[in-house]
């Protein structure tokens, strides 16, 4: 399976937070985004499960500051 890119993560963040397509830059501080709250995180976890077949925990995402951090977390979980 191909390595996940930060732009792929950014697109899933947009979907989970109901942001405008193309509005989330990969280096944005995730904690500053409207919708990156408990519900947005749960939606994001489900998107990752469906699209990348990786199980994440919401509390692990809270430690991720950027899309690159999330990508690295997903890649570590993929093994």
Looking at how many chains there are and whether they match, the oligomeric state comes to single chain
Helix/strand-derived class?
Answer: mainly alpha
Amount of beta strand:
under 5%
Uncertain runs are none
Order of helix and strand elements from N to C terminus? HHHH
**Residues in helix, %:** 40-55%
N- and C-termini, Cα separation? 11 Å
Calculate Rg over CA atoms.
11 Å
CATH architectural label: Orthogonal Bundle
Q: Count every helix, treating DSSP H or I runs of 4 or more residues as helices.
A: 4
CATH-assigned fold name: Non-ribosomal Peptide Synthetase Peptidyl Carrier Protein, Chain A
Q: What does the average pLDDT come to?
A: 94
Shape annotation: globular
* CATH homologous superfamily designation: ACP-like
CATH class annotation:
Mainly Alpha
Total number of beta strands:
0
Overview of this protein structure:
- By secondary structure, the chain is mainly α.
- It has one domain (about 5-79): Non-ribosomal Peptide Synthetase Peptidyl Carrier Protein, Chain A.
- Helices cover about 55% and strands about 0% of the residues.
- It has four helices and no strands.
- The chain has helices at about 5-15, 40-50, 60, 65-79.
- The longest helix has 15 residues, at about 40-50.
- It is globular.
- The model has no long low-confidence stretch (mean pLDDT about 95).
Describe, in short, the structure shown.
The protein is built from four helices and no strands.
């Amino acid at each position: 399976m191909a390595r996940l890119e930060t732009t792929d993560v950014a697109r899933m963040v947009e979907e989970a937070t109901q942001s405008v397509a193309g509005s989330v830059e990969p280096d944005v501080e995730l904690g500053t985004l409207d919708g990156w709250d408990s519900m947005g995180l749960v939606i994001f976890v489900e998107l990752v499960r469906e699209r990348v077949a990786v199980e994440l925990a919401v509390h692990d995402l809270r430690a991720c500051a950027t899309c690159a951090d999330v990508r690295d977390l997903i890649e570590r979980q993929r093994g």
